Amino acid sequence: MGVTGALERIAEDAARGNLVFSSNAEVVLGVQRAVDDPDCSTDKLCRLISAEPMLSTRIVAVANSVAYRRAGPASADVKSAVSRLGFRNVRTLAAAVLIRQLRDMARTPEHRALARELWEHSAHVAALARVIAQKIVRLDPDTAFFAGIVHEAGGFYLIARAASFPDLLTEGLGEWEGNGEAIVGGAVLRELDVPDAVLEAVEELWEGYLRYPPVRLGDALLLAEHLSPVESPLARLGGMEHRGVHADIDVAIDEDTLKHILAESAADVKSLIEALDF
Fold first, then answer.
1. Which DSSP symbol is given to 180?
2. Which of 106, 227, 241, 250 is most exposed, with the fewest beta carbons within 10 Å of its own?
3. Residue 6 belongs to a domain
């Protein structure tokens, strides 16, 4: 089976709902469904969250990050953390736990190392996308944070399946950013029930076209990926640059303005990355 055939096979499996998570995934998916239910109360949501220790821990950690804890005491329980973050950020962190479970599906030490590096990249992109959406693109920062968390979901699934396709993470990575990323990534994101606006933004990231001036969620993701100090290991192994943004960023945003915004937001970015380190 060639590389393209392998990518199509992996995408077909994902589209059929053959994503495999750990046994507590149903709890996390239940949290996502509850968040989407307009009749769900905060008390009910908190009971669901409390049944999953990893999710509970991340929600409290992010609620106490500099980005969200502007004043007042630290959140010491799930209910106060949910009240601070809001339901949408709970959904984001539920997605983060599911992505973490995809990360942990990697079978070999080499693949696990790649997955850990890809998660570090995703955390940086998510934190930076939140700042860029708020300060530059002028869009909802929480949606950008969610988009950054899930934008490499297909990459994690690729790594998880790589043991079944021995040459996929060597010979196949030249085809990943582009056709393969869209085939597999799109299937995984749809299976994870990612909102259409976020899926569209991730597709714009794959295309690599930065607008002048940057005005859309996809632009925030492109800029965040370019500015991330941790590169995607899949891009590096595939010999890919930052999706062609290098030549465009100085035109899109004044360099001094960008430096000022990032310096001003450095504490927020650092605290979110630390909160997502699990």
1. I
2. 250
3. no
Cα 180 to Cα 174: distance, rounded to the nearest angstrom: 9
Please indicate, yes or no, if residue 120 is contained in any of the structural domains. yes
State how far the Cα of 16 lies from the Cα of 216, in Å rounded to an integer: 31
Instruction: Report CA dihedral (260, 264, 270, 275) to the nearest 10 degrees.
Output: -130
CB 202 within 8 A of CB 190: no
Q: What is the dihedral of CA 193, 197, 201, 202, to 10 degrees?
A: 0
Instruction: Assess if residue 198 is contained within a domain.
Output: yes
C-beta separation of 185 from 155 below 8 A: yes
Q: What is the pLDDT along the chain (278 residues), one digit of tens a residue?
A: 566 677 778 877 777 766 666 667 788 889 999 999 999 999 999 999 999 999 999 999 999 999 998 777 889 999 999 999 999 999 999 999 989 888 888 888 999 999 999 999 999 999 999 999 999 899 999 999 999 999 999 999 889 888 887 777 765 566 565 567 787 888 889 888 899 999 999 999 988 888 878 889 999 999 999 889 999 988 877 666 555 554 455 556 677 777 888 888 899 999 999 999 87
**What size, in residues, is the chain?**
278
State which residues form the domain around 93: 21-104
Question: Based on the domain organization, do 63 and 143 belong to the same domain?
Answer: no
Residue where one domain finishes, among candidates 55, 89, 104: 104
The DSSP line for 217-277 is HHHHHHHHHHH-SS--HHHHHTT--STT-TTTHHHHS-HHHHHHHHHHTHHHHHHHHHHT-
- Whether 77 and 112 map to the same domain: the answer is no
What CA–CA distance (Å, rounded) separates 91 from 89?
A: 5
